[in-house]
Amino acid sequence: MSQTLVEAPPALRLRDVTKRYGRAADATAVLSGVSAAFPAGTFTALMGPSGSGKTTMLMCAAGLTRPTTGTVEVAGQRIDNLSDKQLTRLRRDRVGFVFQHFNLIDSLTAVENVYLPARLAGRPALRGRAVELLNLVGLGERLKHRPAQLSGGQRQRVAIARALLTEPVVLFADEPTGALDQEAGREVLDLLRRLATEQGTTIVMVTHDAAAAAAADRVLLLFDGVLSAELHGASAEEIAHRVVSHR
Ligand SMILES: Nc1ncnc2c1ncn2[C@@H]1O[C@H](COP(=O)(O)OP(=O)(O)OP(=O)(O)O)[C@@H](O)[C@H]1O
C-alpha cells in the first residue's frame, strides 16, 4: 500500500505580513511584506535597528496584534483571522512569552510562579509539571525560593519554565537577556539553545545584542519593516557589522 507523506507545517509561518498603525490610507507601513517560516525545534533571532519593526513582527506572530494584511499560521492554523476570544485562548495555550523583565510575582515561590498563573487562568496546571520544568531549567534546588532570593539569571529561568508550562508551539522571547549581566545572559542563552536542540522547542527571540543573536540557529535582519537578510552560523562580529551597515 502506498503512503503519502505529508510534511508537517512549520511551527510558525508569516506570509506577506504588512502592518500599518492608524487608519489613514497613507499611514506608513511598520512591516512591509514580511514572509518567514520557523521550523519546529529551531531557534531564530530577530535583529534590526531601533524602530525597524521587530516588536511589531513578534506581536503579529504571537497573536498580540493583527496584521493589516497577510497571514500568520501557528502549526498550520491561521491565527490572523481569529476572534478576540480565540486569540486569548491561543496566547494562553499555544504560545509562550518571556520578556526582558521577568514579571514574576514577588510573594510567590519559584514553583508557585510557574504553575499558579496558569491555574488562575483556568488551566489544570499541575505543580508536578512545574517541578519538572524547574529541574529542566536547572533550578530543582530552588523550588521554594522567592524571586528576591534568586539571581537575575535564575529569575529569567523561572520565567522560561512558566512560559513552557502549557507546552507552547512557539516560545517568544523579547530581549530575554536585556536586563542581565553577561554571565547570566549567557546561561539564559545556553538554556534557550538547549531547549531548542533537546526539547524541540521553537524559539523566536528579539534582541539588540549580536552576541545573543549568535546563539541562535539563524538571524533574521529587519530594516524599515522589511526582512533584508537571513544569516546562518554567523559570528557575533559579523552580525553586529551587518546590523550597522544595513546589509
Ligand atoms: N501602537 C503603535 N502605534 C503607532 N505606531 C507604532 C505603534 N507601535 C509601534 N509603532 C511604530 O512602529 C515602528 C516600529 O516599532 P517597533 O517597536 O516594532 O520597532 P523595534 O524594532 O521593536 O524597535 P526597538 O528596537 O526600539 O524596540 C516605530 O516607528 C514605532 O514608533
UniProtKB/TrEMBL annotation:
Signal peptide: none annotated. Coiled coil: none annotated. GO terms for cellular component: membrane protein complex; plasma membrane. Residues 12-244 form the ABC transporter domain. SMART domains: AAA. It holds the Pfam family ABC_tran. Keywords: ATP-binding, Nucleotide-binding, Transport. GO terms for molecular function: ATP binding; ATP hydrolysis activity; transmembrane transporter activity. This is ABC transporter ATP-binding protein.
